[in-house]
Amino acid sequence: MKILNNILESFSKRKRLILSLLIGLVSIFFLKEASYLLYKTSSQSQVINSGFYYLSKSDLSTEYDSDSFLFPYHLKIFGIDLSPEEFKRYCKFLLYITSAILISYAYYFRGSFTGVFLGFFLLLSPVYLIQNNWIGFADHLTFFWSVLLIIFLDQRDQYPGKKIHSYVLFFLFVLGSWTHFYQFVPISLFVLFLYFWEKKEIDRDILKVFFFGIFAGRISSFLIFYLNGIEWNERRLDTAQSLGFARWYSMHTKHLILTLVSFWNGLLFLFLENLARKKVSILLVCFGAFVITFFTADSTRVFSHLFYPAWIALWLIRFRSGFSKRDKWILCFGLVLAFAYLLVFDPFYKWGGDLIYLGPRISF
Question: Where are the domains of the chain?
Fold first, then answer.
């Protein structure tokens, strides 16, 4: 009888694995088409980083930033020669495949409702709005590492005895620091903080992996540039320091309420639901993302990439204990509200002191 139960359990796991992979595959096509419907816009509302496209065709040089060289350079390393249109499609493909990985993982380890919920949650978030309109930036690959960070932290939490998770996390911290150091470090800190807060204990082993990984990534990037005879540069820090506090203040207080609206893109109800459940950790992460965003010009873009990985991590933690039928209806209602917001109102993002509108989804 025990042997039969083991066989049935093994069969059930394989069936669930195949189904979760199929759901992930289908989600790629669905998210692509749904993104076109929700976030289609004119070329005037798009920001194309053509610099990274041309860097992807050249070796390391002084044109590369020392804190974010991996995104264009990995195409050169693997000999991937893309046309401008193919480069744009590749950037969006990274977003869809990252989403599919998260959906498949959530579907397999948390159940069908979690996988579907997180898929729609991502689609309706400003992460999708930004990555469909800011093309060719390191954000595409940084978000990929961020989702893998969340997944392997979750796996380590479920199977604490396996060393492989710590090794993978170490390499993720290295790769993330090569991709977008000044973005990936706060993302990692926010995600780790949220995990420690929700578990009510600090995992010192993970902290060691984080500090060693980030340190190794930073030192190795310095050596890579040094051995190639390239001067170390910190353009991002130089830009941030060149503008005074008064300039940052005037920039971010302009259209303040609408700027805050752009940070949730219709998902404000779900954020309030978290606060109603006394999830103080996500509120503290939100404040941290606010502070960092204050010293950048790309308000919606920066906040969404800093904040949403931690929020996704919180959803995975909450879904581990399950939701009642009533709670699931509340979460679905939040998604419906977000969808209605995107259809009725003209989606927008904040860039510098201006609001950039995509154009209405529905013509009245």
Answer: 2-357
